[in-house]
Amino acid sequence: MTTMKLIVVLAAAVVAMPLALAHEVVSSPDGHIKVTAGLKGGKPFYSVARDGRAVINPSYLGFELDKGSLKDGFEVIASKRDTKCETWTQVWGEDKDVVNHYNELRLCLRQRRGAKLRLDVVLRVFDDGLGLRYEFPKQAGLGEFQILDELTQVAMPVDAQAWTIPTQGTTYYEALWTKAPLSQKPEVSTPVTIEVSDSLYMVLHDAALVDYASLNYTPRHLPGAAVTLVASLTPWKNGVKVYGHAPMATPWRTCIIARTPGELITSRLMLNLNEPCKIADTSWITCGKYVGIWWGMHMKDYTWSQGPKHGATTANTKRYIDFAAAHGMKGVLVEGWNYGWDGDWARDNKFDYTKPYPDYDFEGLQRYALSRGVSLIAHNETGGFAKTYEDQLEAAFSLYERMGIHAVKTGYVHPLMDEKEDQHSQYGIRHYLKVIEAAARHHIMVVNHEPAMPSGLCRTYPNLISGEGFRGQEWNAWSADGGNPPYHVTVLPFTRGLAGSMDFTPGIFNFANKAMPGTHPQTTLAKQLAEYVLLYTPWQMAADEIENYEGQPAFQFIEDVPTNFERTVVLNAKIGNYLTIARKDRDSDNWCVGSATDETARDLDLKLDFLDQGKSYTARIYTDGPGADYRTNPYPVTFTTQAVKRGDVIKVHLAPSGGAAIMIVPVKPVTNH
Amino acid sequence: MTTMKLIVVLAAAVVAMPLALAHEVVSSPDGHIKVTAGLKGGKPFYSVARDGRAVINPSYLGFELDKGSLKDGFEVIASKRDTKCETWTQVWGEDKDVVNHYNELRLCLRQRRGAKLRLDVVLRVFDDGLGLRYEFPKQAGLGEFQILDELTQVAMPVDAQAWTIPTQGTTYYEALWTKAPLSQKPEVSTPVTIEVSDSLYMVLHDAALVDYASLNYTPRHLPGAAVTLVASLTPWKNGVKVYGHAPMATPWRTCIIARTPGELITSRLMLNLNEPCKIADTSWITCGKYVGIWWGMHMKDYTWSQGPKHGATTANTKRYIDFAAAHGMKGVLVEGWNYGWDGDWARDNKFDYTKPYPDYDFEGLQRYALSRGVSLIAHNETGGFAKTYEDQLEAAFSLYERMGIHAVKTGYVHPLMDEKEDQHSQYGIRHYLKVIEAAARHHIMVVNHEPAMPSGLCRTYPNLISGEGFRGQEWNAWSADGGNPPYHVTVLPFTRGLAGSMDFTPGIFNFANKAMPGTHPQTTLAKQLAEYVLLYTPWQMAADEIENYEGQPAFQFIEDVPTNFERTVVLNAKIGNYLTIARKDRDSDNWCVGSATDETARDLDLKLDFLDQGKSYTARIYTDGPGADYRTNPYPVTFTTQAVKRGDVIKVHLAPSGGAAIMIVPVKPVTNH
Questions:
Q1: In angstroms, how far is CA A347 from the centroid of its own chain?
Q2: Are residues B29 and B86 in the same domain?
Q3: Are both A349 and A261 inside the same structural domain?
Q4: What percent of chain A stands above pLDDT 90?
Q5: A118 within domain boundaries
Q6: Nearest by CB to B553, which of A556, A625, A671?
Q7: Phi, psi of B391 (to 5 degrees)
Q8: pTM of the model
C-alpha cells in the first residue's frame, strides 16, 4: 500500500483566498481552542490558543528536502475548510464508540520562486486538541525526494514541566519517564506529556505513522517562546530522514489539550487522526487474557534455548493450556518454541518461524488447546533480523492460520534492525507495517515487542492489538536499577499509554525474584491487580508462572476483569503520584476500577457517579491489606463486598506503592432456569 | 445383623478371683488413669481417678428389667483382663492412623438369689478415658427381656460447669449448647462436656449405639458426690427403654478425660470403642466437597415443591453441576427433586424415592454430572416416615447404584418417627442402622439429617460419612432467635463434634438474608472459611447459592481446603470462646488451619510447631479485614502470603465473631515436565 491511500478524502469547500491575508483561524467544535495558521514573511506557521490564552506560540513549519528548502518564500494559494462529525465503533478498546468531531483547515501553499514547490498544511481541531500534517501534492517539481529535516516547531509560552524519555537509540523506548522543565531536557521522543498548569495538560505525539520516521523533539531557545520544541526525525543511517514521493502525506503532528490529567486518558484524538479500519471482516479479532511460558525464563527456572531446563516443552505447555482452560483464559504464549534460540540468538539470525524444537509438539499442542477452548499465541522473536522474518512471513502466518492460531507476539531484541537501521526509523516503520498487513491477511493479531512507538494505527489495523515500547513487567525481573519505580504505573497511562495499548504483562504474585535475589516488583500485590485496569490492552497477560497463582484468591480479580470496554472514566489522577480509572465492560453491565499510588500511601474516595441510576450493584473490593508495603511485604490484600449504587463513595487505602482493584457487578435475581 | 456380632472377641485371660475381693483396679496404659470396679454391698460400682485424684466417685451400675432388678445382690464370679494395642487406619477422618490401646477388665457378676441372673461389666481404660459397657450373657433366666431403666451413674466429685443440651424430645438435637453447673441442668442428652478445672475436661457419651436407646443423664443429688448423673434412656412410647435378648451387649458408656480442651478433639476414644469396619471393600467411599440446591429454598428463591419457583429443575441443576465441575467439587445435592414435596410434605407420607418431578431429568442429569467428573447426591427426605422409606430402600438404592450415585442425604423432619416413636429411641436407632446397612450393600454413603446422636459408628460403617444432630447453618436462615450465636462454632467441636462428623454446611458468602431481612449468619466471612477446618466432615458443602460465589476470591480457600486428613492438631482452645485447629491433608503435605472466636475480637499467635523440620512452606492466610465485625460488616477478608517454616508464628487478628483460615503448602520447585 502507499501512503496516498491514507489521505482522507473530504468533501471540501475550496475558498478563494485573498493572498494578502496572512493567516486564518480554525476553532474546535466547542469554540474553546482556536488555531491560527498562515504565513509570517512567507514562512508557514501556526499557533494555538485556548479560551483566549496562548497554548502554543507562533511556531514555524517546513522542511529541508534534497530538492530544496520548504520553509519560506511561500504564498497561500488556497484554503479549504471542512467539518466532520461522526461516531465510529472500535473493534476493541477503552471506549466502544468514538466521536470524531473536528473542524479542518487546509492551507495550500506554494513557493513564489524556484521550482515553485507546493505544500499543504492541514489542521484538524478537535475539542481535545489538534492534529497538523503536511501533504506534498503531486507536482512537476517533486517526484521522489528526500526529507533531510522536518522543521516543525512547538513554541511553548512557558517552560513547563514535562514527562519524557530521551530520543531512542537502541533502548526500544524502554526508559524511565522523568519529569523536568522542557528546557532542561535533551532531545526527547514523543509522546511528550507537558504539565503547563493545574488546568492545562498537553501531549505532543504523532498519529498515523505508516511510512515515515518517528517524531522526536529537541528543546531550543528561540525568540518568541520560553522554549521551542523542534521536530527531529529518527534518521536512516545515511542521514536521510524520510524517503518520499509526491503525492504524500506526513503523519499527523498531534497535540492533546486537556484541563485534567484524566482528560488525556479519555482523549481519542490519536485514534481519530488515523484512518478508519482497513480490515473488512474483523470477526476474528478478539479480546481476552493469556498466560505464558515466559516469566519462568526471567526467573531462570527455564531457558529459551534447548536443554534440560527448556521451558517450551510439550508437557509444560500442556500444563499452561490446562490452566488457561480452567481459568477462562483464551491464550497461551510460549517463548523459545522454535529453532533459533540456541547460542547467541540475538546475533545469529537463524530463527525459523515454522520449525519447532523436537521437544515441542507445536501442532499437537494447538489441537489440544483448541479442544479446550484455548489457543497458542505464536511467539516470533527476530533478534532484529527483519528481512529474515519478512522472508518467512507468508510461510509462518499461513501455517499459523491453518492451525487456528490468531495471535503472534513479535520481538526485535537487537540494537539495530537488520544490523543497520534504527527500529523507529522509516526503515523500521515500513517493516512493522509489512508484518501487520501480512498478519491481517492471515487473520492474525499482533502484539509487537521492541516496536516503534505506536501512533494510533490500531484504528486502521485493529489486528495490531498491543505492543511494548516501554519498561514492562520484565524490568522487575532483571533490571540492575531495581526495576520499575513505584511511580512508574502512575505515569505510563499519561505517556506511552496515549500512543496505544500496552502489553505490560501485569500479575506477578510471587515477589521472590529468584533471578536477582533481593529485587522484586516495586508494587504491592493489590497494585498488580490494579494494573489490569490502569494499563490497557485488549489481551491482558497473567504474567507469573502458573504455579504462583495456585491457591491465590486475588487471582479471582484477574479472572473477572474484562479487557474490552464500553466506556472509560478517570476518577482521579495526578501524573506520577496516583490514578484511578473505571471502565465498563463491553459485554455486560460490570465495571472494573483500578487505583494506584506512587511510594506514598494514600486514602482515596472513589465516587461512583458512573453507575446507572436506580440500579443495585455489588462491589468486590481488593485493597492493600494491613501492613502491606512494597518495600517490606507486598502480599496482604483485603477483600470485601459492599452493596453500592450510583453516587456512593468507596473509600480505599493505598499502601506505599499500593493499589486497589474493584469489580462492580449488578445484583442479579436468582432464577431456576 | 445382631448385636452379638459387635462384641469384641478378645484373647482374654480368665483370672480366678477370690470372692471376698470387693473391687479391682484397671489402669490406663500410661498409668495415669485408674478405674476401680467391683461390688459395694452387692451393688456393682466403678470409680475413676487420675493421678490419684478422684475424677468420678464411686458410681453404681445396674438395670431394672421386666424380669427383675439387676442392681444389687451380686457376687463376682470371675474377672478377666486383657490388653490391646493396635493401630488401625480410618477410611477417612481427622487422623489417618488411630492407636487403639487399652487395658480391659471384665467383671462377671451373678446375683446370689432368685434367678441368679448374670451380668458382665466391661471396662476399657485408655490414656484418654474409659468405656464401660454391660453384657448380658446367654443364660437360662434371660431370653427376651425389657430394660425398664438403666441405672448407670456418674458421680461427680465437684459440681462442675458443663456444656449440654436438654434431653431431646422433638428437636432433633438442634438446641443451643449452654454452660452451667451440672446441678442446675435439667435432664441432658449426651455428649455432656464438663469443665472440671483448667486441667481436667471430661466428655460423657455413648459409643457403638446399634440396637439400644440413646443415653441421657439426669443430674441428681445423691450421697457421696457433689452431683450424680444418672442414666436416662430415651424410651419407647410404651415406657420400655430397650427390648433386649441375651446374649447382648449395651453400647459403651464413654468418658473422655483430657488435660486440655484440645485433647478432647484429638481423642479417638469414641471410634476405638466401636467395632472395626464391616465393609470389606471401601474403595467407593470417597471424600470431597459439594454444592447444592438448598440454601436457595431457605432464602425463598426456590421451593422444594413443584411450581414456578421449583428449585430442582433440570436447567438449574445443570448450572450447579457446571459450577461443581469448574471448581473441583465432586457432588451436587438437589433437594425437592422427587415426588412428595407438594402440600404438607412433613405430614403427608407420600415421598417417592425413585420418581423425579417432571421438570427434573434425574437420569440425564446424573449422566451429565458423571461426564463432568461430578455426581448427584440423592436427597431422601422422609418426613419421619421410616417404614415408608424402608419399604423403598432397595428400589431406591438399587436405582442410585445403577446410576452411579454413591451418596444420599436423608432427612426426618417430623416430631416422631412413623408418627409414634422418638427418633433417638431404640426404634429410631434400629431404623437408622437399617438404612446404613442397605446403603453399604449398594455402595452408598449416607449423610443423616435429623438423626440420632452419632456414637462413632462410622468406624464400623464408614459409609455413614456425616450427619446433623445440631444447629447447622440453616438456623442462620430462619431462626426466630437470630440464628446461631457467635460462640456456637467454638462449642460444637467439643460437644456434638466428638460424637461424629458434622454436616454443618458452612460457606455462606452473601449475608443478606432475603427470607428474614435483618438477620444473617452471626459470623464474619473469614469465620465461614474457618468452619471448613473446625467443623469436620469428609464431605464439606459450599452451602451458599452458587451465584454468591461468583467473583469471590475467598472461595479459593473452599476450593483448596482438604476434607480427609492425616493428622489433626489443636493449637489453642477455650470452649465457647476460641479455637484453632490445624489439619494435615492426607493426600499431600498441605496443612490447613482454622481459627474462630466468639463475639470477642482476639489476637492469636499460631505457632507452626507441626510442620516438617527443614521444609519450606508458603502460608496463604485469610483473616478478618479492617472493619470486619459480624454485627455490622462481615465481608472484609485480608489475604496474605507468607513464607513459613516449622516453629514460625503467624499472628492473626480475629474480629468479633471472626475467624482465620490458612492453607500452608510446601514450596514446590518449578519443573518443565
A1: 28
A2: yes
A3: no
A4: 91
A5: yes
A6: A556
A7: -60, -30
A8: 0.91
B126 to chain A, minimum CA–CA distance in Å?
40
What ipTM was estimated for this complex? 0.86
B117 shares its domain with B209: yes
Are B297 and B432 found together in one domain?
A: yes
Helix (H) or strand (E) holding B249: strand B248-249
**Does the structure show a pLDDT above 50 at A18?**
no
Residue with cell 427470607: B515
3-state secondary structure of A197: strand
Pick from A547, A556, A671: CB nearest B552: A556
Task: Tell me whether residue A40 is in a domain.
Answer: yes
Cβ neighbours of B301 in A, within 8 Å? 670, 672
Statement to judge: residues B380 and B444 lie in one domain = yes
Rounded Cα gap, residues A562 and A539, in angstroms: 10
Helix axis angle, B314-326 to B362-371, nearest 10°: 20
How many angstroms separate the CA of residue B305 from the nearest CA in chain A? Answer: 13
Look-up of cell digits 418431578? B357
Asked, for residue A478, whether it belongs to a domain, the answer is no
Q: Report whether pLDDT(A14) > 70.
A: no
Cα–Cα distance, B84 to A594 (Å, whole number) = 64
A202-228: pLDDT as tens digits = 999 999 999 999 999 999 999 999 999
**Domain span at B389:** 288-469
Considering the domain architecture, whether residues A454 and A530 belong to the same structural domain is answered as no
Domain closes at, from B214, B238, B272: B272
**Pairing mode of beta strands A445-448, A464-467:** parallel
Residue B479 carries which side chain, given as an amino acid letter?
A: S
φ, ψ (nearest 5 deg) of residue A486: -55, -35
Q: B104, B150, B474, B531: which one is catalytic?
A: B474
**C-alpha cell of A5?**
491511500
3-state DSSP helix/strand/coil % of chain A, to nearest 5:
20, 35, 45
**In this structure, which amino acid lies at residue A37?**
A
Domain count, chain A: 3
Helix (H) or strand (E) holding B439: helix B426-441
Which bin fits A473, alpha (ψ -120 to 50), beta or left (φ > 0)? alpha
Q: Are residues A253 and A313 in the same domain?
A: no
| Contact state of A313 with B638 under an 8 Å Cβ cutoff | no
Are B59 and B49 spatial neighbours (Cβ–Cβ below 8 Å)? no
Q: Which residues of A touch B670 (CB under 8 A)?
A: 296, 299, 301-302, 545, 547
Q: Is position A172 within any domain? A: yes
The CATH number linked to B228 is 2.70.98.10
DSSP A371-418: HTT-EEEEEEE-TT-HHHHHHHHHHHHHHHHHHT--EEEEE--SSSBT
SS3 (DSSP) at B489: helix
Residues A305 and A374 in one domain: yes
Amino acid at B155: A
Catalytic site residues of A? 474
Q: Which residues pair with A163 in a beta bridge?
A: A179, A193
**Cβ contacts of B555 on chain A, cutoff 8 Å:** 553, 556
B569-609 confidence digits (pLDDT tens):
999 999 999 999 999 999 999 999 999 999 999 999 999 99
User: B316, B357 in Cβ contact below 8 A?
Assistant: no
Record: contact A313-B673, CB cut-off 8 A: yes
Measured between alpha carbons, how far is A598 from A575 in angstroms, rounded to an integer?
10
pLDDT at residue B435 above 90? yes
Q: Which of A238, A271, A304 is the last residue of a domain?
A: A271
Q: Mean pLDDT, to the nearest integer, of B433-451?
A: 97
Task: Enumerate the residues of chain B whose CB falls inside 8 A of the CB of residue A672.
Answer: 301-302, 309-311, 313, 315-316
DSSP A363: H
